[in-house]
Amino acid sequence: MRSFKRSWRPALILVLALSITVYSLSFKAYADAGRALVVAVDVSSSVDAESYRLQMEGIAAALENEDVFASIMSTSAEGILFTMVTWANHPRTVISWTKIDSIEKARITAARVRKLPQIGGQYTCVTRMFRHIIDKVLPQMPGRAFQTVVDVSGDGKENCNPHNPVTMTRDELIGQNVTINGLPILQGTEGDTIEKWYRENVIGGFGAFVVTANGFKDFGSAFIQKFRSEITGLPLPREYADRKAD
């Protein structure tokens, strides 16, 4: 009887170990990613056709930038999860969750960004955008990521008079272990005050930061630096970390 017990125990241990290994590998292949990134772009009435094009081109250029892609893969062999929301009166998920783990997938996603039609609105409803991410976007994430980042860009403050203040919904989002970074665009009637407002009302969570764009023409350059820092977790170059409006 003793020899029988000794013979089956190693076999059982081996079967369990192989089962755990197979499960872990299949889970990683489907779900794991270095970071999950929600890019949330303001398309309200202050964003004309050219400003919209500059934003889409900046995001697309960042996705297909080979140095940025190298940063993605050096951080995690599983790549990143990417989704995109445009927001004004009402937020819309315009690119659903996509796993980017090859340069081909990065280029395909960039091409989709460039083709997105402009569907705007009159108002700048930041609270509704946060609520959409909490209720609609995050529950659809196809797995787990090391860190989830919401990347908010825009040139205006909340003006939809929400029932709950922006900071309340922001804090609810942060409570789901999400980091919210900001890219305020210093242009138009709120150009002198929008950075401060973003720091006080939009960003939050572990390691949150702001990068400013000195107008829509500067959006692409600022977005690439911000995107790279979000992916790698490394500090921004000093010229971006310390930049102010011209």
How many separate structural domains?
2
Poorly predicted regions: 11-31
CATH class placement of the largest domain: Alpha Beta
The largest sheet is: 5 strands, mixed
Helix content: 40-55%
Mean pLDDT: 87
CATH topology title of the largest domain? Rossmann fold
Please write the string of helix (H) and strand (E) elements. HEHHEEHHEHEHHH
Q: How would you briefly describe this protein structure?
A:
The protein has 246 residues and is of the alpha/beta class.
Q: Could you explain how this protein is built, in words?
A:
The chain is α/β, with parallel strands linked by helices and about 250 residues long. The protein has two domains: about 1-30; about 35-240, 3-Layer(aba) Sandwich (Rossmann fold). It has nine helices and five strands, in the order H-E-H-H-E-E-H-H-E-H-E-H-H-H. The chain has helices at about 1-30, 50-65, 65-75, 105-115, 125-135, 165-175, 195-200, 220-230, 240, and strands spanning about 35-40, 80-85, 90-100, 145-155, 180-185. It has a five-stranded mixed β-sheet with strand order 3-2-1-4-5, with helices on both faces. The longest helix is centred in the N-terminal third of the chain and has 29 residues, at about 1-30. It is globular, with a radius of gyration of 21 Å. The protein starts with a helix and ends in a 5-residue tail after the last helix. The relative contact order is 0.15.
Give me some keywords for this one.
Rossmann fold; 246 residues; globular; 18% strand; single chain; 2 domains; 9 helices; alpha/beta; five-stranded mixed β-sheet
